[in-house]
Input
Amino acid sequence: MAYINDTTNVMIVGVGGQGTLLASKLLGEVVRHQGFDVKVSEVHGMSQRGGSVVTYVRYGSKVSSPIIELGEADCIIAFEEMEAARYLPYLKKDGLLIVGTQVIDPMPVIIGAAKAPQGLLDELAGHPIRLVARDALTMAEEAGSAKAVNLVLMGFYAARSAFGLDVWEDAIHRTVPEKFLEMNLKAFRSAAMA
Output
């Protein structure tokens, strides 16, 4: 995924409380320590109430802007299916979409004002993209906490990145609080080595 002279564009999308910001911080830490220029931009929306959260991470030899435009993302890491569908237009043709198969119903669905869309993964698979769809929630729970979904998804990205797993694990040590470190490393490894 990483190119020496070009800019790599990664979007991390989910809903408030899923750990998207820690995931973007981890990616930023990895690429910064590999000597890349990196820009991170966070858009929170209604993150406190389970609303959409998106983070742009751009890295390369020289990055001037933190914003990713439509059709520019090399990779989108989506914490759940509806957010993957919402941000799909940002992904390049043949781009990588990593999506946790969890579905979090938005408020209109919860209160009965709308129906949840069906068949999102099939719809996503019909696009000219590289799709990695996994049950990240179950993997996180098996590692010790549902809150480790972010490290599971970053493990899937790490396995497809140009950076060795040791580089990622060093960054996890610098980014994750000590009391959560072993559980997060277990979650990361479960995906990175799958």
